[in-house]
Amino acid sequence: MKRVVMITLVVGLFLAVSAHHGLAGSQVPFPEGWEKWTPVKTPLAKIGALPGCDADVSNLPPIYQETVATYCGVKPGGPGKVEVLVNPGALKAYKARNGGFPEGPNMVLHLKDMKVLFVIGHRNGKALYGVFTEDGKDITAAQGPLSQTTCINCHTGYRAFCVKGQCGKIIE
Ligand code: HEC
C-alpha cells in the first residue's frame, strides 16, 4: 500500500514538473480556422513535399538538408506533401520577414499526407512552437523530432534564414 502511494506521488510530481517546464505540450494554441489561412509560395511549398531519407538533397541549403534529415524517417518514404499557411492577420509581417507578428498562432506548416500541423505563434514577440493533428489534438512531444527543443534549435540556429521564428519566405 505504502509503495503505491509512493509511486503515485512520484508520478504526480513528475507530471507537475513537466507541465511547469512545458516539457511536452504545445506552447501555442491550436490555430482555429487554419483551413482558411493563406497559402504562401516558399521554397519548400514550391518543392511541395518533404522526401524520404534516401533522397539526394545535397544541392539544397544546409537548413533544408537538416530539415529533411530530421523528418525523413517519421514514415517510410518521408512525410510527403506539405504547404505553408499564414494567418491573414500575420501576412504583412510574414512578407516583411522582420518579426512584428501579432499575438497567437500565426504560421502553419501543414504536413498534408500526415494530417499534422506544425504551428508557430507569438507571445510578446517571442516565437512559440507546437504540433497538432488536423482536428486539434496536441501531439507536441517531450523530446525528439516533434519537440519544441527540436523546433527552436533549427528555427533559431540559422540566422540567414530565420527571423523571429520565421524560416520561409515568399519567393514570388
Ligand atoms: C532542421 C530544421 C527545422 C526543424 C527541426 C523545424 N523546422 Fe520548421 N521550418 C524549417 C524551414 C527551413 C522552414 C521554411 C521552409 C520553407 O517554407 O521554404 C520551416 C518552416 C516552418 C513553418 C512555416 C513558417 C515559416 O516560414 O517559418 C512552420 C509553422 C514551422 N516550420 C514549424 C516548425 C515546428 C513547430 C517545428 C518543430 C516541431 C519545426 N518547424 C521544426 C526548418 C525546421
Q: How would you describe the overall organization of this protein?
A:
The chain is α+β, with helices and mostly antiparallel strands. The chain has one domain (25-157). The protein is 30% helix and 21% strand. Strand 4 and strand 5 (116-123) form a beta hairpin. The termini are far apart. Residues 13-22 have low confidence and may be disordered. Bound molecules: heme C.
Topology:
Blueprint: H1 2-21, E1 38-40, H2 43-47, E2 49-50, H3 62-71, E3 80-86, H4 91-96, E4 104-111, E5 116-123, E6 126-133, H5 148-157
The structure holds heme C.
Residues 42-45, 63-64, 66-67, 70, 84, 107-109, 118-120, 129, 131, 146, 150-151, 154-155, 166-168 line the site of heme C.
By DSSP (H or I, 4+ residues per run), the number of helices equals 5
Give the total of beta strands. Answer: 6
Bound molecules: heme C
Q: How much helix, percentage-wise, in residues?
A: 25-40%
CA-atom Rg in angstroms: 18 Å
First and last CA, distance: 67 Å
Share in β-strands: 15-25%
Short description:
The chain is an alpha+beta fold. It has helices spanning 2-21, 43-47, 62-71, 91-96, 148-157; strands spanning 38-40, 49-50, 80-86, 104-111, 116-123, 126-133. Strands 1, 2, 3, 4, 5 and 6 form a six-stranded antiparallel sheet that branches.
